[in-house]
Task: inverse folding
DNA sequence: GTTAGCACTCAGGGAGAATGAGTGCTAACA
DNA sequence: TGTTAGCACTCATTCTCCCTGAGTGCTAAC
C-alpha cells in the first residue's frame, strides 16, 4: 500500500527529529516545529496509521513514536535528501588525506582514523584483496648463506615475501637457475592452474631441490589465494557518544562483537558489492544479533579493476545517513586514488 | 619505616580480598576470613595505621579500605606470591599457539587474542622493531616494463618492498647493474652512515639515473630507520568485565585513549626495558591521566638479539597481578620462539 | 476530514526513611 | 602495654511514595 504524501512528510519529520534528539517524538512537537499545516491531533491520527503499517514503534504507551527498522529503510530508500558537505568539510577532509603514504597498513589505519573523525562513528576499512589473481612474478634471492628470500608479485599488485632456510651449499647460481626455472613455469598462472600433474612435472625437473620447491610453491599458492579480507577498525570509542550505548551491557555487546574482526569481515562479505555504490544495512538486516541496534554504511572501492575492498562505518540506527554517505563517498574517492598511486606507481593509470 | 609482619599480613589480606571482590574491605571480614588470630578491633587499629602510612585509602568514612597505589606497589614488590599456572592452563595456552603462522601481522593479532583470552584483559602486542639496524641486502627487479620492485632486507630480518615506476627504456640489464652497484655501495651501512658526501658520490657515479637512485635511497633509509613501534590491541572489550568500568564515562575515557595507538606506544616506550623481565606500572605511574585507574603489565621479548618488542595487558589496578605475570611469561617465551622461526628460518639459531 | 478537549498512562525524578556495613573511640581486660 | 568488646556515629545504597509532564486515544463538534 502506498503512503500518502502527507504520511511521508510526517514520517520524514519524525525520523529526522529522532535522528537529532534520540528522544521519542510526539505529535505536538511535529505540529510545532514542522510547517505541515496540521494540528497535533491530525498528526496523531496519521501516526497511529503509520504505526499500524509498521513504520513506527512505540517504546511505551505514553511516549512518542520512534522509527521502526522498516521506517528507516523507507526513509533511506525514498525520503532522504542528499547531504552536501560544506566547502570547509571538503577541504579539511581532503587536506587530511593529502600526504605521502608509504605502507599499505599505514594507509588503512589512517583512513580509518579519518573516517571516524569525519563521521564521529566507528570506522571500518578493509584491506584491498584480489579475487583470482595471477602470478606476475616470482623471484628468489640469496640473502646470506643458507637463507633465501622469495618475493611474489601478483597481477593485482600484491607483493609478499618470505625468508626461508636452505642448505648451505646452495649458492647464488643455483638460486638464480631455480628462480628462472620456476618463474618460467609459473608466471601467468592462477591458483586453479596449479594442478597436481603440473606440479609433479616441476618437482621432477628439479628433483634434487624437491623439498625446497615444494615450500616455495606452497607460498606462491598462499599469495594467489590471499583472498581473506582483513579489516581495521578505528575510533571504536565513538560509539559511546550515542545515548543508545550508555547502557553498559549494550556497549559490552558491541565491543565484544567488533573485537572479533572476523565478525566484521563476515558482515562485509554479506553485502552485495554494488559497484562504486553505497550499501546500507539497518539493524537486523545485518544478520547479527549484536548489530540489531546498529546500522552499517559501506562504500566499495576498486583499484585498477583488480583490487577491491570496502570502507564504512557502524553507527546507531538513528544516524545521519545522508551526511555519512557524503563523507564516505568523498573519502572513498580519495582512497581509490591513493591506492592506485601506491600500488601501480606514481600516476593513476589503470595498471595492467 | 618498616612494616611489622602483622601489618604486612593484614595489608596482603586486604589487597587480595579487594582484588577478588572489588568491594572495600572491612575489618570484620578480614578477621573472619583470614586466620590472623586477631579481632576486628585490633585489625581496625592496624588499618588506621596503614592508612596513615599511605598504604590504604578510604572511599568514605563508613566504607571499608581499599589499597592505595602505594599499597599495590608494595604488594607487587614485596608481598605477592608467584602464581603457578595449572597443567591445563599451560597446555591449553601452548596448543593455542602451536600452529603455523605465515605473516607477521597475523602472529601479532593472534597473540593479542591469546593474551586477552588467557588473562581476560585487553592485550597489547608490539610489532618487533630494530634499533640501528644495518642494511643486509637491497635488490631490484623489473616486474614489467616501467615498473621496478625494490626489496630491502636489514640485518634485523626486516624485509620491506616497494614498487616504483621507472622510464620504459630501463631494461633488465640496466636494473641489474644499478642493483649490483647500489648493493655494493650500501650493504652493511646503518642510517647514520648515509652522509651527504657518500650519497653525492653515488649519485654522480650513475648520474643518468639520479632521480631514481634518490627515491631508492630514500626508501632504504626509511627501512633502516623503521624504529617506530606499532601496536595491536586485542580484546579491548574485556575491560568492561570489571566493575570499575561500569561507569560509562570511565569506559569512554579508556576506549578513547587506546583508540589512539600512539598513546599506547608512548606508554610502552616509557618503560625501562628490563631484559626478559616484567614491568608493572600502577595507575598514575603510567604518566597518563586516562590510565590513573589502570595498571600496565608488560613483558619484553627479544629475537636473536636484534629485534625486540613488548607484549602486555592493561587492566584495573585491582588485578590478579601474579596470574597475569605467569601467563605473560609463558606466552612471551612461545612468541619469541615463533618469531625466531619466522624471521630467521626454520630453527631457533640466533640468526646472524 | 480536521481539530479541540479531556481522561488516562507511564517513565523519570526527588524527598524521605530504612538498612546495614563500616568506622573511631573509650574503657576494660590480660 | 597490647588487645578486645561495646557503642555511637557516618554515610552510600535501596526502597517507597508521590509528583510532574509528555504523550496518547477517543469523542464530539466544526
Result:
Amino acid at each position: 500500500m502506498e503512503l500518502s504524501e502527507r504520511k511521508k512528510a510526517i514520517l520524514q519529520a519524525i525520523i529526522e527529529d529522532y535522528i537529532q534528539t534520540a528522544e521519542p517524538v510526539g505529535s505536538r512537537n511535529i505540529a510545532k516545529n514542522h510547517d505541515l499545516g496540521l494540528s497535533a491531533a491530525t498528526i496523531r491520527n496519521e501516526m497511529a496509521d503509520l504505526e499500524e503499517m509498521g513504520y513506527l514503534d512505540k517504546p511505551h504507551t505514553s511516549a512518542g513514536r520512534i522509527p521502526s527498522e522498516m521506517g528507516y529503510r523507507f526513509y533511506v530508500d525514498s525520503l532522504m535528501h542528499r547531504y552536501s558537505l560544506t566547502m570547509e568539510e571538503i577541504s579539511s577532509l581532503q587536506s587530511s588525506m593529502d600526504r605521502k603514504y608509504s605502507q599499505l597498513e599505514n594507509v588503512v589505519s589512517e583512513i580509518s582514523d579519518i573516517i571516524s573523525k569525519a563521521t564521529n562513528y566507528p570506522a571500518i576499512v578493509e584491506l584491498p584483496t584480489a579475487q583470482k589473481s595471477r602470478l606476475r612474478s616470482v623471484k628468489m634471492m640469496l640473502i646470506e648463506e643458507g637463507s633465501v628470500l622469495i618475493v611474489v608479485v601478483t597481477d593485482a599488485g600484491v607483493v609478499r615475501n618470505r625468508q626461508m632456510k636452505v642448505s648451505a651449499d646452495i649458492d647464488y647460481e643455483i638460486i638464480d637457475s631455480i628462480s628462472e626455472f620456476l618463474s618460467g613455469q609459473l608466471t601467468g598462472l592462477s591458483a586453479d592452474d596449479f594442478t597436481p600433474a603440473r606440479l609433479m612435472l616441476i618437482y621432477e625437473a628439479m628433483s634434487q631441490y624437491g623439498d625446497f620447491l615444494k615450500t616455495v610453491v606452497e607460498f606462491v599458492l598462499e599469495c594467489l589465494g590471499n583472498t581473506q579480507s582483513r579489516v581495521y577498525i578505528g575510533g571504536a570509542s565513538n560509539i559511546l557518544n550515542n545515548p543508545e550505548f550508555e547502557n553498559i551491557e549494550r556497549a559490552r555487546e558491541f565491543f565484544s562483537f567488533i573485537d572479533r574482526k572476523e565478525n566484521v569481515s563476515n558482515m562485509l562479505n554479506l553485502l552485495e558489492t554494488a559497484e562504486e555504490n553505497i550499501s546500507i544495512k539497518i539493524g537486523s538486516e545485518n544478520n547479527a544479533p549484536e548489530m540489531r541496534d546498529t546500522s552499517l554504511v559501506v562504500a566499495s572501492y576498486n583499484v585498477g579493476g583488480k583490487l577491491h575492498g570496502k570502507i564504512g562505518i557502524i553507527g546507531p540506527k538513528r544516524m545521519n545517513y545522508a551526511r555519512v554517505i557524503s563523507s564516505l563517498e568523498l573519502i572513498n574517492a580519495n582512497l581509490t586514488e591513493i591506492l592506485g598511486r601506491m600500488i601501480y606507481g606514481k600516476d593513476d593509470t589503470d595498471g595492467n
Remarks:
- The mean pLDDT of chain A is 88.
